[in-house]
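#dry-run=false #mode=assembly
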Amino acid sequence: MSEQKVTFRVFRYKQGDTAPHYDTFTVTVNERTTVLEALQAIRRDQDGTLVIRHSCHHASCGTCGMRVNGKEVLACVTNVLELGTPTVTVEPLQNAPLISDLVVDMGPFYETFSQAHLPFVRRSEYLPDAEVAEGVPFHMRFESCIECGLCVSACPVVASDAEYLGPAALAAVWRVVQEPRGTEVPPLLDWVNSEHGCWRCHVALECSEVCPSNVDPGGNIMALRQELVRRALGLSHG
Amino acid sequence: MLQETRALHPVRRRGWKGWFAVRKRHLGYVAFALNRLTGLGLVLYLIIHLVVLSMLARGPETWDAFIELAKSPAFLLLDVILLAGILFHGLNGLRVILVGLGIGVHRHKELFWGLMLLAAILFIFGAWGFLVV
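#status=ok
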């Protein structure tokens, strides 16, 4: 496996700093090295003070979301050499409180998201003809959203409206509307039917572009709008 | 305690500058940025237009002098730029309305290019009308 050196320009910020800055590191990578692995190598071999967050290494946990070369990605599944740039710039997500280096405080994101009351699992749409075991009503799967916050970082409306509920929470509400499973839907629709709710979206749809789980937040926001219009016209029976 | 800790953390929010941070972004974001830019341009034009109309109150000499200026090639070029802004904002706005109502959400890029083709055709005719006819 061939190896080559790649320069990493890494965003640095510690509590008390007057302003952030960038540090440059050189890392030897191969065809399989991910950005997360390179950052771990920097932390291990060059600068132990570099703060990063990660867990699963396979795009399931959503904790390693960051901006690589100006685009929101999960660092664990972003191949360094496939980026095709001699210097890789790594920054934390935008529109979230910055804790240190590449780590942001996801607390405000979770607070908003949790108000959607989205369950962790959903009825599976895959393999509809698959045999279901006795006593099991239907196959289930985990919800698609991994709560990584990439969509919120990429949204230009969140950038200028701190009160906007954001694409992740709105998409979660649409999922609950689709499959309420005991959750009261009207209060949720009242929550999103507001100036800073689903009507605030201006259709940049970057959320759907950066989403690593095919949640399609932009599409879900538009579906929410349609549902609200249907209900306003008395056309919805849900 | 959590809130107190959070208050110390700065939020990296670009504000209105974020609208125009189109580098590495996709078509929908670029269209959003251009829509904002042309929208601001049209608001500026509206203000200038109202100021120009106020010249009517200053008598025919002032107005006639302005009309002479308005016929100059440089001024007509500004009209052509205005036409481009109106066409982009209007037709992309139509796309935003349709997609915003859930129509063609997953075909929004094709919708954009189709409407921009229409904008280009109208622009050519309009610019020809301004500069040649």
